[in-house]
Amino acid sequence: MTTPSPVVVVTGANGLVGTAVCRALVERSARVRAVVRREGSAPAFDGVTEHVGDFADEGFAREVSRGADAVVTTVHPMGSPREVQHRVAVEGTPVLARAARDAGVARLVHVSTAGVYDRSAGVGDVAEDGALLPEGSGDYPDTKNATDAALAEVGGLTTVLVRPPAIMGAGETSVWNALRPQQIRDGDRRANPAQTWPWVHVEDLADLIADLATGAVPAGDDAARGPVAGGTTAVIVAGEPATWRDYLGTVTEALGVEPEWTDEPAWTGQLRTDRARGWGWAPRVSLAQAMDELRRGLTTRS
Q1: Phi first, then psi: what are they for 14, rounded to 5°?
Q2: d(Cα 285, Cα 11) in Å, to the nearest integer?
Q3: Counting beta carbons within 10 angstroms of the beta carbon of residue 213, is it exposed (0 to 12), middle (13 to 18) or buried (19 or more)?
Q4: Residue 301: which pLDDT band, with cuts at 50, 70 and 90?
């Protein structure tokens, strides 16, 4: 008997993470409903169908969720005014979550961020139960924390909050491969070289998300083995240890400018990935490979 291909809804399907997730899902024989705001912008992969609309619209959310097995949400307008981040993420994402629940969708995978954790100087290693940043820590962590909390309140779903740090990967919209280097080019080059720079490559991140969305990581009652069935489970996903000397040093060298190293207090702990590894995930892209991709991209553009 042939097992039917899972149907997965992906919001922000034309973004850096969304595109990688669509690709990883197709590789796992899933059928993907790619949600985008602009017609013709969805990834052109076999098995992907474009759905143009606003996932915060209840009617559209119900329509795109009907008959789906999982929903993956990747949209957060980082860098936009706080009210926009709040409207799109904190208010909008739960609309889709409720529609998915009502449609009988089994699993919601939400791309959160490791930036919700307190990583002040002196804080050691951080796991999923680490202290969250308090309200007032900034528009981005505040609204990401609020979105996570709002999704946890929806109920009736197995919800996974995937928490990556800096996401590496080539692309015009890539924060760490394109946008952040532009800021560095413009003069923002200060950092303690020993400060931890946690990261993950977008392909490794997409692998975990796709495995979660297709049920390759089964739900149960032990978060060490998989998402808690019917509950909300956070999971940190990060690559091998790195520091700002690795990242900023690579960018400044490629751009032909000098970094401004400081000795200010900084976090030197690590993001613990025991939970993700217990779920069968392991990064495939090494730091050397990620930095080489970064270097080649910057050299090509400069």
Answers
A1: -95, 0
A2: 25
A3: buried
A4: low
Asked if residues 106 and 8 have their Cβ atoms less than 8 Å apart, the reply is: no
In which domain, by residue range, is 26 found?
Answer: 7-168+201-238+269-284
Nearest one of 53, 52, 13, 15 to 30, comparing CA atoms? 13
- pTM here is 0.96
Closest C-alpha among 274, 271, 165 to residue 223: 274
- Residue 47: C-alpha distances to residues 110, 215, 264, 280 (Å): 22, 18, 50, 25
> Could you tell me if 25 and 8 are in contact, meaning their C-beta atoms sit under 8 angstroms apart?
yes
The 10s digit of each residue's pLDDT in 183-228 is 999 999 999 999 999 999 999 999 999 999 999 999 999 999 999 9
In a domain, 183, yes or no: no
- CA-based nearest residue to 245, from 190, 188, 164, 169: 190
Quick check: is 195 in a domain?
no
Residue 177 domain-assigned (yes or no): no
- Ramachandran angles phi, psi of 203, nearest 5°: -70, -40
The CATH number that applies at residue 136 is: 3.40.50.720
SS3 34: strand
What six digits make up the tokens of 60?
């559209």
22 assigned to some structural domain: yes
CA distance 93 to 104: 17
- Residue 132 makes CB contacts below 8 A (sequence gap 6+) with 116, 117, 118, 145
Count of domains in the chain? 1
